[in-house]
Amino acid sequence: MKHKHQFPRRRFLKLLSYGTGALALTPALNSLAACSLFHQQKKLGIALVGLGGYSTGQLAPALQETKHCRLAGIVTGTPSKAESWSSKYNIPDKNIYNYSNFDSIADNPDIDIVYVVLPVSMHKEFTIRAAQAGKHVICEKPMALNSEECKEMIAACNKAGRMLSIGYRLHFEPHNMEVMRLGQKGIYGRITSIDTANGFTYRGDPNAWRLKKALSGGGALMDMGVYSIQGSRYATGQEPLFVKATEEKTRPELFKEVDETIFWELEFPGGLIAKGKSSYNNSWGYLRVKAEKGEFELEPAFSYGGIAGRTSKGQMNFPQVNQQALQMDDFAQCIMQGKATRVPGEEGLKDMKVIDAIYKSLASGKKERIV
């Protein structure tokens, strides 16, 4: 079987109710109502755009466990990947695309959802192209290079009447959902402090796209820090107003273009300060919340599995789950039932506003307003 994938990606590189930001996307929901009964009769087809490590190691395996959606197609610029994925997952040739003929996916009724799993610089383009092709979209985080791109993506999906969701898997993970419940419901009273960090020691390819600012938009803050920002936001259920940030770089020869380690303080309404850290040179992964009448924390907090937590009353007792399967199934159900996703594009936009302000604070050396 031969596939005409002559345009490699490298060429394009030159507790469910406590999720935050479940904003209704009115144009999309109106268009969904008419087809919801039809969708309820089948599993929705997902096409993965970009077959890197996350698609290969997490999303494709998760789609073998999902109940409401299935792996129906792929988009890749690498012929060898097209061959191997087609064989492994029984994907028909007509459901395999490259980055040049991607727009013809509009004519394929097998594909209901396009999942964009590409370098950040390509998120906006393929989210918009997918929506214009009439497909609902899941876009990986961070949502885009900056908040202005996020706004364009949201507007394009609304105009097309398609739903947009961001890959915030932890909104479907029981321990993190418990943090949302405890914090947002004030179970231990008013939150008095938050300390959170996420990172790892980077030992990968020194030429990887994640280390190229034009492709990634930034370093550990974009890749890992988005989890800590999310944690602070969903623990409080509030949006931060200001941020002050500083940077540390111990391996400038490796991180020539992007940040290595960033420290920040988010100021929330009422004066609450949430301290955060992101790094490509430290193994961190915790979320610690103190309140007037107790405390609660997760460590590990943000990993694909093995998440553990405790409160003032003892250890949290929740099962480990396939986060990605639950995330994708929930979005499929939102489409089928004509309801809003709890992690819409607006949720990604809120994180990017914080990230934009952190980078602005690094440049100015001052506290910056998050706008």
From TrEMBL:
Signal peptide: 1-33
Keyword Oxidoreductase attributed: yes
Domain GFO/IDH/MocA-like oxidoreductase span(s) in chain numbering: 180-291
Domain Gfo/Idh/MocA-like oxidoreductase N-terminal residues, every copy: 45-168
Regions that span the bilayer: none
Gene3D superfamilies for this protein: Dihydrodipicolinate Reductase, domain 2 (3.30.360.10), NAD(P)-binding Rossmann-like Domain (3.40.50.720)
Protein name: Glucose-fructose oxidoreductase
Lineage: Bacteria, Pseudomonadati, Bacteroidota, Sphingobacteriia, Sphingobacteriales
